[in-house]
Each structure stands twice: as structure tokens, then as C-alpha cells.
Amino acid sequence: MAHVSYFYRHSLLYNPFLNALLNTPLEYIFGIGERRAALLAEEFGLRTVEDLLAHYPFRYIDRSVVQSIAMLREGPDPVQIRGKLGVVKQEGAGRTKRLRAVVSDGTGSAELVWFKGASYIAPQLISGAEYLFFGKVGSFKGRPSIAHPEFERIAPGAEIDGYMQPVYSATEKLSKLGLSSKGLEKVIAKLLAQARGQIRETLPRSLTETLKLPAKADAVYAIHQPGKEEDVKHARRRLKFEELFYVQLELLMKKELRTAQSRGFVFENVAEAFRSFYEHHLPFELTGAQKRVMKEIRRDLRSGYQMNRLLQGDVGSGKTVVAALSALIAIDNGFQVSIMAPTEILANQHFETFSAFFRGMPLKIDLLTGSVKAKRRREIDEAARSGALNVLIGTHALLEDRVVFQNLGLAIIDEQHRFGVAQRAKLWKKNTRPPHILVMTATPIPRTLAMTLYGDLDVSVIDELPPGRKPVQTSHVYDGSRIRIFGFMEDQIRRGRQVYVVYPLIEESATLDLKDLTDGYESITRRFPKPEYQVSILHGKMKPEDKDWEMNRFAKGKTQIMVATTVIEVGVNVPNASVMVIESAQRFGLSQLHQLRGRVGRGAERSYCILVSDKKLSNDARKRMKTMTETNDGFRIAEVDLELRGPGDLMGTRQSGILDLKIANLATDAKVLQYARNAAADILEEDPRLENPENLPVARRAAELFRNKPNWSRIS
Ligand code: ADP
Ligand code: MG
């Protein structure tokens, strides 16, 4: 097969001897050695010279700028001063020994102090001579003071040849071994001088020319040792582009390879089950977006290729019915369907929704979760194995080896990001031929992130809410307003509505949080006493039966208030609930707040979300509150979230390494990313096997980068 030979051929292109210095492990580098190398690997994943040269500075200090001493203020950023040394004296002895000096520049004087190395430094400091000093400003007896400054003696009145000093991230452990930012600067400068000739171009000339990108070697050099700020800008643009280009190239090749290799089941028929549901059971007209997405899915299911589709849609956009319709197509073609949800509550709810959808149809659906008893469990296993079962809904219990299907044709995964990539792969392996996969996510993902994380999947978006929805009205109030909030809750309950009150429950502070929850519950039951009011409580520490019981009471309208932790975050659907009060809202992330808010506004009534927070808010928390009150648009919220948290945290776990970008930033580099994806797609379209001599740099670099990823055609 063409693609297989591609990889074989290019594995020959990777020749470790060609890049002798770049590929040298750091432990063999003079000035680094075994201990530091181990630490560099541990702290930053840096193993070879090439890796270290890709440890780019995150900012620069302009060393041509000299501050006048009179203007010095305490602060975290190092500054440079110039002046004449006054007294230099050593004080104390033994452990308290220190070296002090005073420097003056005509505008004022500053104190310099060394707590270590006094006897080594003292001879280099000559009273009356002129120096540059560089370091962070503190204060000592009301006078500015710099501890352990860097210094350099200069001729009186001499011009200084300042430079853009790179600042590298370094950890405390590394600094202790001499690899502070300054130490790294020295090592990297030396390696750069030796390695420059070996740094090969990795992009085809056509690209660097049209996009006016500097050559790779020049960019690497400039980013570490820029002559001027302009150089850094060009270098960064080039390196970002390259980084994103290879991420996209890999994803696109992966997608291509999978399409070529993995034949999928062909679901040609839309028959009895689908028709009967569509005509008689579907309780509403599909929205335009739902119809479009169904078309995309049907096209996949007929294509002969395995479907790998991500379905994105904001909370409440109606993904469930799309899942149900897709399931019916599989069933009509004689296949079974699995639906996996991240929590028991959600699995239960799906089970109920599907049972209601399919009522009166000759279909067998069951529910498999961790709390299913052994005897029932055996029945379920048997029904799945024999093919008697059409749809099996469950939690990750579905992934256990004992669950075997007779013919699984479609695997639906709800709330994607709670499941890791490896878990998805397990589902895949339940058949000799992989089932079609539909991944649904309720947390809208910014486009850049989707392109990077799921660049190898096809993406469908439901970007339209069912008709008649009113946006949830959101307000932010402080703790002191509780009496008013209670009054508002009472008013809504009088109108027949229901209310959620949610508390954070975070593992690290679980005991305290649980206390907040129960205290809250008590004050609410005092304000809303029985028998007039019924209040439910729900948290993760409760037994599954108890949770279900409470959830059901609330869903059936038997209780008016649900006091809960975030166990109700995902998916729970009680259309009559119209108020969501979020306590300690500052402690929740944006996507969580948005998810929680999505629990209301599901019926025809106007709904409200009230964020209750401390008065003291961090800047980020303030931005989160502001974003929530300003917009209901999940995609907009996701973008702000990405800005605030970065991609790794946003996705819950740092999965797949794809997000470990060294220089590009998915929150701010959307444009570069789009260019990079287009460029990669164009190249692959014209020259899918990268045989064109013009693309040799790409073929070579791809072979180097992807060589340690043997299984990369089968990751998802
Ligand atoms: P989510 O995308 O968050 O999973 P759901 O599938 O739970 O959303 O749908 C939310 C609510 O909207 C449900 O009550 C569902 O029955 C309803 N719904 C879905 N599609 C439509 C539609 N086309 N018209 C009216 N209501 C719809
Ligand atoms: Mg849902």
C-alpha cells in the first residue's frame, strides 16, 4: 500500500549521524553532565542538544537600558544601573559573612550585597572604579538594594554595548545546579555557535518565500541572540509556523492513512426503525443544524470508511436526538450500538431518554454501570454477546473486557474530554473491524483547539438552539445578598419553577466543601421549611441509589430545590428548573460555570443564573464572572477560557502531547494555525508521498519527528 511504503522509505531518510551534534544527549555536553541532564529531562523534557536549542527564551531584557538610581523601585524584574563604587566592606564571619558595597551615579546611591562568595568577589570590586550592575531591586534601610548583582567593570564614560538578553524559564532545582536563566544562556550560546551549520531547513522554499519566513537556522539563532526586537518577531513567527505546520501535517497524514486503511461497515439502509421513529416518535421537528449534521453522519455511515466524527454543540443544542437517530441507522443495518457517558447519573439519564424515545418500538436497550448487580450484569453481558441487545448504554464499565458485542457497529461517546485517548481506543478494539465512532462534546471547543486536538477527526457542529429558547439571564452578586436571593427563589417556586443551588466540591478541600454544602442545605431548609417546601441534596459521597432517588424526586417535581455539588454538572435535564444559583462561583472554571448554567433554560420559561462570590476576586475570577454575565455563547466562553487557562488545563488532562507546544499559542495564534493547516493540506494534496524534491525538507523532518510514533495511524 502506498502509505506503508511511504513510511518505510522515510524511515531511511532519518539518519542520526547526519545531525551528530544536534542529536547528542545533553549529558555528554561540557558544562552539563549527567546530573544536570537528568534534571533538564525531568523538568522540561529536554534530552538532546536539539531539544535544548528549542528551549526558547520567553522574554528579553534590553541591556542597553540603564536606569538612574534615583528612579529605582522594588520589583520582580531585574534592572541595570551604572555607577562608581564607594565603600566595599566585608562584615561578619563564618555563616554570617557578607560583602557590602555602595554604588552612586550622581542621582543617588544603592546598596549591593553578597551573602555568598564574598572572598571570591571582593577582589573584583575596586572602590572608585565604574561598573554596570544588574539584578532585582529590593530595599535595605530605606535605600534601594540589589543582592547578588551581576556586574561588569567598564572604562569611565565608556559607551556600553548593551544587548537583548534572553530570559529562559528555569526551575529552582536547575538554578541550584547552575542552570538558572543566566546559566542556560551561556550553555545555549556556546552550543549555538557550534551547531549553527547543522541546523537544517525544515520548510520548502516555496513556503518560506511566500510567507517571508526567515530560514530555520537564522530563526533559531535570532530567537536566542537577537540583535534587535524586530529579529525576535520574525524568528517567532517562523518557529510558530513550523511548529503548527508539523502538528497539522501529522494529523492530516493520520487522517489520510486511516481513511485508506480502515474500511468501515457500510450502513446502506435507512429502514423500519429509523423511519418509524422519525415519523411517529420524534417529539419535535429537527432544527436545521440537526438535519445538516444527520446528513453528514449518514454520508459517513454509507461511505465504506470508518466514521470518526466529533459532534460539537453547546449545552441544550440537542445532541441526544442525533445520537438516537444515528443509533437507529446502525440498528436498521443489523448492528448493535454502545453509548458511553462519563458519569452514572448521565448514563441513567441517557437510558431514560432513549427508553422514552424508543417506547413502543421492538428494540432492546439496557444500562450497564458499576452499580449493576452481578446477576443482572450476567444477563446484560449475555444479551450483548448474543446480539439480542440493540443498544447498550453505560459508563466506562462498557470498556471492561468482559463486555463483548456480537456486532458492534456504532460506538457513541458523550462528553468526550472526560475520556482519554487510550480509553477510546479500547472501544475500537472490541471488534475486528472498528465500529463507527461518534464523539459528542458539550463543552464547545475553540476552533484552534479543535483543529489541533481533533484535526484527524471530522467535525460536525450544531450551531443552532431548538426554537423558543430564551437565553439564561445571568447576574453576579456578592455573598451579602443571600436574603435577596432567597426571596427570588421563593418567587420562582411560587410560580411553579424549581431551583438548583450548587456548591463547589474540590478534592483537595473536600471536607470543608462538604461542610459548606451541608451548612447551605441547612440554612435553605430553615428558610424553605417542610411541608410547604421539599429540598433535595446531592453529592458525590452519596450511594448511587440515594443519588438516583434524589435526582428522580427533583426531576419529577416532588422537590423544589436541589442543593448539590457539581455532580449535576453534565447533561442533567429538568426542563422545569429555572434558577441556577452557584455558590463560591469564583472557584469554578468558565466551562464548568457554563455547563452548570446549561442546566436551566431548558424549558419555555425565562431562566436565571446567579453567580454568588466573595468580594475579593482575582483578576481571572473577575474576568470569568464578567464573561458569564455578558454572553451565553459557549464558543465565545471557550475562547476566553483558553486565553485564561491554556490548552492543557482546558482539556482536563494533558493528553496526547499534541498540546505541548513550545512556542505557538492556541489562544493567540489562530491565524498562523490556519495558514499552517492550509499549507500542510496543500502540500499533501499535491504530493501525498512527499516525493517532490522541493518537499525533501518536509519529508526528512517528518521522518525525524514521527519516527517514535509507530502506532500513530491508530491513536483515536
Ligand atoms: P445536549 O446537546 O445538551 O445533549 P439535549 O439533547 O439534552 O441537549 O437536548 C436538550 C433539550 O432540547 C431536550 O429536552 C430535547 O428534547 C430538546 N430538543 C432537542 N432537539 C430539539 C428540537 N429540534 N426541537 C425542540 N426541542 C429539542
Ligand atoms: Mg447531552
Q: Biggest sheet: strands, sense, closure?
A: 7 strands, mixed
CATH topology of the domain at 473-631: Rossmann fold
Low-confidence stretches: 1-5, 652-656, 710-716
Beta-strand content estimate: 15-25%
User: How many distinct helices?
Assistant: 24
In oligomeric terms, what are we looking at? single chain
- Could you tell me how far the N terminus lies from the C terminus, measured between alpha carbons in angstroms? 21 Å
CATH class of the domain at 473-631: Alpha Beta
Across the major sheet, the strand order is 6-7-4-3-2-5-8
Q: What ions, cofactors and ligands are bound?
A: adenosine-5'-diphosphate, magnesium ion
- Write out the CATH superfamily name of the domain at 473-631: P-loop containing nucleotide triphosphate hydrolases
Give the overall shape. globular
Secondary structure category: alpha/beta
The chain-level mean pLDDT equals 87
Give the C-alpha Rg. Answer: 31 Å
